[in-house]
Amino acid sequence: MIEKNTQGEVWVFAEQEEGKLSDVPLELLSKGRELADTLKVPLGAMLLGHLVSSQAAKLIAHGADKVYVVNDERLGHYQTTSYTAGICSLITEHKPQIVLFGATAIGRDLAPTIASKMKCGLTADCTDLQIGDHEDKSAGKTYENLMYQIRPAFGGNIIATIVNPERWPQMATVREGVMPMSESDESRKGQVVEFNPNFNGLSLPMELHEIRRRPKKVNLKAARIIVAGGAGVGSKDNFKQLWDLAHCLGGAVAGSRAAVDLGYIDHDHQVGQTGTTVRPALYIAVGISGAVQHRAGMQESAKILAINEDRDAPIFGIAHYGIVGDLNDVVPRLTKAIRGGMSVKTTH
């Protein structure tokens, strides 16, 4: 028996703070547009907040066909209770087949709460989403047009593909930066749907008196050149050589999770499965072995230069250029060469 699953829209949660959209929903709209076109259904965005309707035009310009706007004072600042109530009401009323969230601090709190309320599945930290079929041999059923929820599993050693054929909506959180953001098209037309979730009787468990935000120390996603170090750099002092190289290139400094755990660099600079996903024009990996968890965050860089003493390091398998040598020798000479002081002679 074949069950065709084509009803219902594809939705993206339009995360915003203080009326300003983050990049995450704009990235998700790019993938959502692809999924919706494959399924031949509209792409919607859920925009919750207080006085946020002005952001609907931006969501439409980035691919949304419909923007469901929920305006209420109790949504002025994120709280799990109010946002869950609003989104669950939306889902119950309009019955989307796919709902996507960014794997941000808010998304990781909100999505599982909604999945629990709606009694549906959720796959966290996806790195890809596709549409395909699934055969359940035990039940003698073939499900068409399901969302393949693809993510690393078992510490990144395998890539798991997860489907949710029975309990809908199909829900997933998607890691920041893994979906390229589409270009804004101001000529696109879309529908803005004002929605009243009926918050009568809703009691919020918290009262917010003050909000303090610490801005990130670096915007790795915007950097065109990144110099990243791993555990092989050896010390925080040795990392100063990477800062010098990045400075003369006009780039940013990053680190692997191992380097962060060792205290060589702050977590804001982490690239990889549990850090930031980047796509710079040039990624210089210094003392990074190239574990799959790190590669997941940088392997789509336009050009990758790897510097490592171990010629068998996995990072060389994805690098466009490789230098086998001691970073304490190679990096200073490379820095000096870029500044015009000498030529680099190394063994490849």
Account of the 3D structure:
The protein has 348 residues and is an alpha/beta fold. It has 2 domains: 2-194, Rossmann fold (3-Layer(aba) Sandwich), CATH 3.40.50; 220-338, TPP-binding domain (Rossmann fold). 24% of the residues lie in helices and 27% in strands. It is built from 8 helices and 18 strands. The strands form 4 sheets. The protein has a 7-stranded parallel beta sheet, with helices on both faces. It has a 5-stranded parallel beta sheet with strand order 15-14-16-17-18. Strand 9 and strand 10 form a beta hairpin. Helix 3 packs across helix 4. The longest helix has 17 residues, at 23-39. The protein is globular. The mean pLDDT is 89.
Element order: H for helix, E for strand: EEEEHEHEHEHEEEEEEEHEHEHEEH
Radius of gyration: 23 Å
- Strand content is 25-35%
CATH architecture of the largest domain: 3-Layer(aba) Sandwich
The CATH class label of the largest domain is: Alpha Beta
Number of strands: 18
Cα shape: globular
- Describe the biggest sheet? 7 strands, parallel
Domain module tally: 2
Return the structural class: alpha/beta
| Residues in helices, as a percent range | 10-25%
Total count of helical runs of at least 4 residues = 8
The CATH topology of the largest domain is what?
Rossmann fold
